[in-house]
Design a protein that fits this description.
The chain is an alpha/beta fold. It has helices spanning 2-28, 36-57, 79-82, 97-106, 130-140, 152-163, 178-186, 207-218, 240-249, 269-272, 281-284, 298-304, 333-349, 353-367, 394-400, 406-414, 437-453, and strands at 84-85, 145-149, 169-173, 190-194, 224-228, 254-257, 276-280, 292-296, 374-375, 385-389, 417-418, 427-431.
Amino acid sequence: MKGAKDHLIEKTFEALFELEDMREIIRRSLPNGMSAGEEDAFMKSTANLKSVIEDLEKGTSEKQANFPQIVDRIGLRYREEGNINIQPIQAAGRLTPEARKALISYGDGYSTCDSCRKPFRLDKISRPPIADFHEELASFVNMDTARVVPGARRGFQAVTSSLVGKDDSVIVSSLAHYTEFLAVEAAGGKVREIPLDGENKVDVNSMAEKIEDVIGEDGKNPSLMMIDHYDYQYANEHDIKSIASIAHDYDIPVLYNGAYTVGVMPVDGKKLGADFVVGSGHKSMASPAPSGILATTDEYSDLVFRTTRMKGDVTGRKFGIKEVEMMGCTLMGGTLLAMMASFPHVKKRTQKWDEQVRNSNRFMEEFLKIEGNKVISEYPRRHTLTKVDTTQTFDKVAKEHKRRGFFLSDELSQLGVVGMFPGATRAWKLNTYGLSREKIDYLSDAFKEIAVKYNLNVN
């Protein structure tokens, strides 16, 4: 019963918050111990905690949950605890328990700098093992050098800022993410899109012609190609290896956009023909936002990770070890440590990608039993992110419902399913990544239950 589970969620967060209040008393005390007033406050907080634990030990309750506020106007977020979340960009970014513990311990702003020593750069810090983590990231995607960055978009920007000059052309997919466009625009370049084939995939057969057209117009080769392995609109798989091979025939470096792959499935950058691999920590590596990675080969590492050469005209100051595109250092505090804490789990889960895809297809098989439902993405699925069409089913209900398109998200929410874009009943996306077989079956039954309620045919 959802009300009973709400009680458990409420009390669990109460316990966590009480522990944080106790921790704050300890933080404020002197190194040699607490004052009498601090001890009294600590014991009162301990008593409060015991009371909450007793409530938990009593078991579930049918009472309305009274979720605690963090501060005024900032309520509690418990969608992962209380629901099945199918939000397209959140599924693979759920934090591991280890990451949540790292956030608690390392949440202070510059906590990563506790043991920062010469040469005073993030990727050189050995305690905690941030330097080792950078080496592991490079190996993880089979590239030579890697850096952590504030999201995939900052990885795009670092590369375009280094390789793209004013009015240079950059080849992208016709399904490219908007941040790829912005990265090119910020560098002063212009995007040129590769057309799609009839299956909404990059048309490999038209690539050479497109490149030749660009060369004919610009009088020079494009300075970069940015290609998504799985695009964000359909999550269709694109033939990265063939695309990279054609680009290299024209000496065009290739940026592999792994926002939906790095961290959920095996990625071998060199085998795929990538010169740069960009990943999203908060989208696919069980990490807090903003986080991501940028990895490259030895051929481009000195360029993209170049150090500053500027010198102050009055002071003569130089900061030679600081990397220009990284603005010296990038991820700090809890964001980086949570990313590191999740990494052992992330490495293991990429080896179970086939299981995730099977679960995706298991759900889609049941979803398609509602007559009129369609899968717009390639099918059978090769990814857990999918675009579907319910124009002939739930959208017909929406036309007659007093809540219009919002009825579907309302109904799903009542069943503990969240993450669908409110009001969407035509073409919309969902992501089943990380759901157990039991949750996949529950999700399938939820959609079929709603369909039956509104007299839609279910096979």
